């Protein structure tokens, strides 16, 4: 798994690691019992060995242990899913992400004094040329340490918003708005892509997630507001 760059990603990584530890523990017990039976309970005569099919305590144990394992895994899965999918009332940053054949558009939203939402910055991508430079990818810029809400839209077919470093992806569907929130805690630039086969140029739907300091983010928004005021989209 990639090193997570968000609080939510760290929680998912721990769940994944815990599930593997539980799986290895169960596997070790099962294989241990199999090897023990093979080595010490091989057939030595034609006598029928002691039977345990009517041993009530053992049969209760056979039934109870799997239920306990499933219940524990279910609890931690439900707990972490609720944490990862939780949305807040007033996120610091709201970005409308529009997936289209074959690139991405990032619209940054703010509310004015009247509470009406407006776009204050916009990044419109172009399909990345085969073997093209990294600079050709559209960049989604977000601040570290702040709650970011991503709202996903599509106008043509189903896409999927995926940043491996977030250890998370979500479908981008026409006619339905999916959304999620995350809080990045590591600065840097991370690769993103569409994870849903959406057509012939699906592989060209590449983008980057850039995590900057809050001050750098404010400068990005201020510069973008100037560009929009001048009548252009970056």
From TrEMBL:
One of its GO terms (molecular function) is cytochrome-c oxidase activity. It is found in: Membrane. Residues 1-88 form the Cytochrome oxidase subunit II transmembrane region profile domain. It comes from the Bacteria. This is cytochrome-c oxidase. The chain crosses the membrane at residues 20-39, 60-78. Residues 90-223 form the Cytochrome oxidase subunit II copper A binding domain. Keywords: Copper, Electron transport, Membrane, Metal-binding, Oxidoreductase, Respiratory chain, Translocase, Transmembrane, Transmembrane helix, Transport. It is a multi-pass membrane protein. It catalyses: 4 Fe(II)-[cytochrome c] + O2 + 8 H(+)(in) = 4 Fe(III)-[cytochrome c] + 2 H2O + 4 H(+)(out). InterPro entries: CcO_II, CcO_II-like_C, Copper_CuA, Cupredoxin, Cyt_c_oxidase_su2, Cyt_c_oxidase_su2_TM_dom, Cyt_c_oxidase_su2_TM_sf. GO terms for biological process: ATP synthesis coupled electron transport. One of its GO terms (cellular component) is membrane. The keyword Phosphoprotein does not apply. SUPFAM superfamilies: Cupredoxins (SSF49503), Cytochrome c oxidase subunit II-like, transmembrane region (SSF81464). Its main location: membrane. Subunits I and II form the functional core of the enzyme complex. Electrons originating in cytochrome c are transferred via heme a and Cu(A) to the binuclear center formed by heme a3 and Cu(B). Its EC number is 7.1.1.9. It comes from Actinomadura luteofluorescens. Gene3D superfamilies: 1.10.287.90, Cupredoxins - blue copper proteins (2.60.40.420). PROSITE patterns: COX2 (PS00078), COX2_CUA (PS50857), COX2_TM (PS50999). Belongs to the cytochrome c oxidase subunit 2 family.
């Amino acid at each position: 798994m990639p090193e997570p760059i968000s609080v939510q990603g760290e929680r998912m990584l721990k769940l994944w690691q815990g599930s593997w530890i539980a799986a290895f523990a169960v596997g070790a017990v099962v294989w241990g019992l199999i090897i023990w039976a093979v080595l010490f309970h091989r057939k030595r005569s034609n006598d029928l060995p002691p039977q345990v099919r009517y041993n009530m305590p053992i049969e209760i144990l056979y039934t109870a242990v799997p239920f306990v394992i499933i219940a524990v895994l279910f609890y931690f899965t439900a707990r972490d899913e609720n944490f990862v999918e939780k949305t807040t009332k007033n996120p610091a940053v709201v970005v409308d992400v529009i997936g289209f054949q074959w690139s991405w558009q990032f619209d940054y939203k703010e509310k004015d004094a009247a509470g009406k939402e407006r776009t204050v910055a916009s990044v419109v991508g172009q399909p990345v040329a085969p073997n093209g430079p990294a600079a050709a990818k559209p960049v989604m810029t977000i601040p570290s340490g702040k709650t970011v809400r991503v709202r996903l839209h599509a106008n043509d077919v189903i896409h999927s918003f995926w940043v491996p470093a977030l250890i998370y992806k979500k479908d981008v569907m026409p006619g339905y708005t999916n959304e999620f929130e995350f809080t990045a805690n590591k600065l840097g630039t991370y690769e993103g892509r569409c994870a849903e086969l959406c057509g012939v140029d699906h592989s060209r739907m590449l983008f980057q997630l850039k995590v900057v300091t809050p001050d750098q983010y404010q400068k990005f928004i201020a510069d973008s507001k100037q560009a929009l005021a001048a009548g252009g989209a970056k």
